[in-house]
């Protein structure tokens, strides 16, 4: 089956830019170079350097994916980065355009954004934690509800982001979606215990742990969450020294959701980052349930990992 690798060549190879990519470059600019810059399991990327009309040079990062899955990923990521940039423009590369290739052997979609020299890895705790807290604090859901106006993708996996007034209902639906996808990918457990326990978690534990956030007169502000913030999706801008985040899977949710990823054992974000974050955004009420909520959010990220890495599913299910 054809894939994006049939459209964009291997790393280091020159790339012939599609006419629709050329159309969104600045007017009267001249292409100096375009070559493959990186690959991933589902995408290909290129660096484009152009000469602007005023004689200065500018570089762009071009990301491509194919077929229906690729369309959802590219459109969701462009929307995600654009949404983050509305509230914290210094925290992410500037998005420029997205679209579909005009001339490709398979349907191929692209996302063009500012190119930055980024050293990937978990940024220094005090800086990234404050900037994430700023994003959460400044963002405002356009509907006052939890969700997003379109599908965004956690990796290659579409998320159910339909608007919902109850955060407990929204998260239960999202966790159910990823649990079902994981079982479909890796097969059911041998004794059925995993499915039974997960059903109890979704139907009983989630209402008990997340329901109080919006009970007894409490309100919960929907905050824009990155949705997949770990060391491979962020880094330091080598020119400014400031953190940058990308590869986002946004929706408006509980701000503490983003910290669930940082609880995973294999993630280089950790307790120092969480402690710094909580200095700027204290736990939601009831505070005594903060740790339970955080562990609950972590489960979603563990399940997402199992979908992408089937060999890990048995150990992840035991957790």
UniProtKB/TrEMBL annotation:
Pfam families: Fructosamin_kin (PF03881). InterPro entries: Fructo-/Ketosamine-3-kinase, Kinase-like_dom_sf. It catalyses: N(6)-D-ribulosyl-L-lysyl-[protein] + ATP = N(6)-(3-O-phospho-D-ribulosyl)-L-lysyl-[protein] + ADP + H(+). This is protein-ribulosamine 3-kinase. GO terms for molecular function: protein-ribulosamine 3-kinase activity. It comes from the Eukaryota. PANTHER family: FRUCTOSAMINE 3 KINASE-RELATED PROTEIN, PROTEIN-RIBULOSAMINE 3-KINASE. It comes from Zymoseptoria tritici (strain CBS 115943 / IPO323). Its EC number is 2.7.1.172.
